[in-house]
Amino acid sequence: MYLKQFGLAQHPFSLTPNTRFFLKMTSHQEAFSVILTALRERSTLVKITGEVGTGKTMLCRKVLNALDAHRDKFVTAFIPHPILSEEGIMHTLAEELRIEHNPDLKYYELLKLISERLIQLSSSGKRFVLFIDEAQAMPEETLKAVHLLTQIDTSNGKPAHVILFGQQELDELLQSSTLHNLRDEINYTYTLPALTCDGTEAYIQHRLQRAGYSGSQLFEKKAIELAHKASNGIPRIINILCNKAMMAAFGKGDLTISADHMERAIEDSKASL
Question: Shortest CA distance to 186 belongs to which of 147, 212, 222?
Fold first, then answer.
């Protein structure tokens, strides 16, 4: 709607994760490095947590893209909605690993097939990396089933790694007595923080530049400060507010985003903030 008015090639504040807009903030770079270090040191379990909208899915996709460049070493799978039974997740993993199987197979039969495939991958010098988003929603039995995959051992070491991405509730879930073995094996963790006010400004400017903006500062300083305060530094909420503020400016024919535009965006978003 407002792309032409502001000289943009695409929408800068879309809610759909797009690695093109990945901002190399210190925290996200640290989290990225934690995951790669864990894989390099063959740690089987990694946990990344953060509030809703702090960029966990974006980070996940960034790491997936990085590993895709090393297909001679890694085979990856991504499960975005893990509200599955232990049998259901095994069917999903069998499909991700391209294992031909009868859809009526039971859990232990599937586990055997997946274990055999992981051993085959290991023998060819490859490791399997499973990324699970929204892991706090997983049933305990399903998490235990996934944990079993990390217990497989070969002459080349353990062939399976699991990266758990979740909200803070994931930490509560892992406190369950039935998951103590899994919890004790998580050697690498990172919690993504909210953005500071300076970080919010850098985030907004970065997304505008990535979307093709090349003019002078589009968002006034006060507008950015208001966006940061209202969003508590959560990128997803910043996106919502900035998009609405730009629409308010578009409606008035204004070429800069002022505090007034941002206040209108905040007022319009109160029910969801």
Answer: 147
Q: Is 249 exposed, middle or buried (0-12, 13-18, 19+ CB in 10 A)?
A: buried
Between CA 144 and CA 127, with CA 76 as vertex, the angle to 5 degrees is 80
Query: Which of 142, 174, 192 finishes a domain?
Result: 192
Structure tokens at 240: 């919502």
| Chosen domain end from 171, 192, 213 | 192
Angle at 86 between CA 36 and CA 127, to 5 degrees: 30
CB distance 258 to 224 below 8 Å = no
CATH number at residue 199: 1.10.8
Between strands 127-132 and 160-166, the pairing is parallel
Q: Are residues 58 and 96 in the same domain?
A: yes
Q: Tens of pLDDT along 117-164?
A: 999 999 999 999 999 999 999 999 999 999 999 999 999 999 999 999
pLDDT mean over 239-259: 95
Q: Which domain holds residue 237?
A: 3-13+195-266
Would you state the structure tokens that stand for residue 70, as one six-digit string?
A: 């090393």
Secondary structure, 3-state, the chain: CCHHHHCCCCCCCCCCCCHHHCCCCHHHHHHHHHHHHHHHCCCCEEEEEECCCCCHHHHHHHHHHHHHCCCCCEEEEEECCCCCCHHHHHHHHHHHCCCCCCCCCCHHHHHHHHHHHHHHHHHCCCEEEEEECCHHHCCHHHHHHHHHHCCCCECCECCEEEEEEECCHHHHHCCCHHHHHHHHCEEEEEEECCCCHHHHHHHHHHHHHHCCCCCCCCECHHHHHHHHHHHCCCHHHHHHHHHHHHHHHHHHCCCCECHHHHHHHHHHHHHHC
